[in-house]
Amino acid sequence: MSYAPIAPGSQPPLDAPAYGSTHRRHPKQAPIRIAPTLTELAAPRMTEALYPSSANLAKGPGWEAQGERIIVAGRVLDEAGRPLRGAMVEVWQANAAGRYNHERDQHDAPLDPNFKGEGRVFTDAEGWYRYTTIRPGAYPWRNHHNAWRPVHIHYSLFGQGFAQRLITQMYFPGDPLLPLDPIFNCVPDEAARNRLIARFDLDITQPDYALGYRFDIVLRGRQATPMENPA
Amino acid sequence: MSAAGDRPLIATASQTSGPFWHLIDVPAWADLLRGDGPNAGMEGERIILLGRITDGDGVPCSDMMVELWQADPGGKYDGAFHGFGRCATDANGEYRFTTLKPGPVRAAGNAFQAPHATLTLFARGLLSQLVTRLYFAGEALNEQDPVLNTVPAARRGTLIARPEGPGTWRLDIRLQGEGETVFLEV
Ligand SMILES: [Fe+3]
């Protein structure tokens, strides 16, 4: 058993000159490719018993966040198209005004005392996840003059093997900031880049309640090749 | 089956965790032996794994997410021990986990891997995670470990933690430049 190699152009490089923070943080030496051992074929079992889920970021007992309520749902699959059951999905985001509930966020936009901005859900047997939140705002950052991040929600996923660990971002359709964003545009392949954009979905939309967005995620797949001796 | 036949879909692109990933940080997860956690009361050699992460200018990286993944003291990944932890680096760029010392893990054939833990780094400025391993200085199995032996001898030391007081092991991580840590691609 091994993991399928990364499809060319589908992942961002570590050295991305347009994204300033990579300058001093990207390793200069190429990573050393290893044949997966038991360590990489196994993965922590993230269960709801250990990591309680919280699927509504917008509303709780006695509080409700400001902003446009939305529902986000999608499937988590592997590269063979098989649904991943029990995948843990963590999300975090800025509030409707584009401000994170984080002491290091210095953006001069109002904090919402009713918006913490983090949630955790698990996929069902068909790989579906779903949560309710508010649409985040765009926010400025200091990468270059007049730099603004497109509207996005951060995602962290645990699949069924160590190589399925993924942190990514979900973007929104039609955002005029997308063509200007160095982080989004660091993914070389256009189709791979555009798969980071959720699409509006009337089936997920709930009447008189909230617009729905669909965002599917694919985690790396396994290949049935004999384990090579890397030495 | 061909690679293409195995893969009708392509894995979603990674993106940086950014500087505000702490919204999902639960500081207690850095202690795998926490009293209300999945490993409470488990037997084994209690250890602390720590180290400082610095960038290409030698500046401490104080905003990193570090995840630990390791086998149990018997070298198993059978789930009895929940070998996962997460921590944030502090103002000095230091990560710190409390755990049980992992045992030798089975490798191909009759061989064993040396005791090790995997460290995965996410941060602002990292468009995808960096994966490395932490080994323990002085382990006889280090000499024949299949992963260590894949690494050029001159750089192997970047993966080997040194003792720092009783039960405490230090592995500093250099993201870039002189003494750059070896990162692994799976
Ligand atoms: Fe963000």
From TrEMBL, chain A:
InterPro entries: Intradiol_dOase_C, Intradiol_dOase_core, Intradiol_RC_Dioxygenase, PCDO_beta_N, Protocat_dOase_b. The gene is pcaH. Belongs to the intradiol ring-cleavage dioxygenase family. Keywords: Dioxygenase, Oxidoreductase. Residues 1-31 are annotated as: Disordered. The keyword Oxidoreductase applies. It is an enzyme of class 1 (oxidoreductase). This is Protocatechuate 3,4-dioxygenase subunit beta. Residues 72-100 form the Intradiol ring-cleavage dioxygenases domain. Gene3D superfamilies: Aromatic compound dioxygenase. Its EC number is 1.13.11.3. The keyword Oxidoreductase applies. One of its GO terms (molecular function) is protocatechuate 3,4-dioxygenase activity.
From TrEMBL, chain B:
InterPro entries: Intradiol_dOase_C (IPR000627), Intradiol_dOase_core (IPR015889), Intradiol_RC_Dioxygenase (IPR050770), Protocat_dOase_a (IPR012786). Residues 43-162 form the Intradiol ring-cleavage dioxygenases domain. Keywords: Dioxygenase, Oxidoreductase. It comes from the Bacteria. GO terms for molecular function: protocatechuate 3,4-dioxygenase activity. Its EC number is 1.13.11.3. Gene3D superfamilies: Aromatic compound dioxygenase. Belongs to the intradiol ring-cleavage dioxygenase family. This is Protocatechuate 3,4-dioxygenase subunit alpha. The gene is pcaG.
